[in-house]
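Our consortium's second objective concerns turning raw sequence data into structural hypotheses that experimental partners can test. To show how far this objective has progressed, the report includes one record in full. It was chosen at random from the queue rather than selected for favorable results. The single chain below, 247 residues long, was entered without modification.
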Amino acid sequence: MELSCSVNSNVFAARLNLIESLWRYGPSKLVIVRVDFGIRVEHQSAISAFEIIDDFERLLANRRGKPSIFEHNIGMIWSLEFTPDKSYHYHALFVFNGHEIQNDVYYADLIGEYWCNQITKGKGTYWNCNRQAANYPVNGLGMICHNDWPKRLALLTHVVPYLAKPDHLIRAAIQNDAIALGMSHWAHKVRTYGASHPLTERRSPAGRPRIGGMPSASQLVYATPDTQVDWSVPGSAFSELVEELIF
């Protein structure tokens, strides 16, 4: 199996662990929402790394107070990047309980508009990846059922890697901003990757137990939504998959 891009292996392995915990201890249906957050071109030159970081951290902190959008959000992954044409921008993946929400495109727009209109006060912009998902050669976004192995594999090989890829420009850009603002001692403390904590126990007794997590890597490659997986032997299936994807 090949990933869609190169990755920071430690970050990627941690993200796989989070996704696996959501399948093991969370609902049997997940809705995967990908939104990219940026700053409008006319404001980019005036926005430092620390300002967009403050904005994004405020979005994360406000989730509890915004149940109309985030009530059924059970996990998330993000990465901060820098490019000369887009300046600083975030890639974010929000995981929702698929038994509670279904319209992934609608929720991606809600999150994006919240970023633009309330968090950045009109200075922000966003891209709703889910709106274009049907056009992707490999689609790992939207509703994914627990036994939809092809789509689960697409999530792990084509969606999650993009939020774990190395950015060779971001550290230098942050350092330059820090020096300009007299905050050089803060530059090394800035996190450019982040994620929610993996689940460690079931949040609800509802639903069948899913012992053993995901099938082995070889099972995933040839699986279909109707594939019957033998869960009777728990063990190294997840570790095998991580090793195959990274190495």
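The partners drew two points from this record. The beta strands are 29-39, 73-83, 87-97, 124-128, 142-145, 193-195. The chain has one domain: 9-200+212-246. Both points have been shared with the crystallography group to help prioritize constructs.
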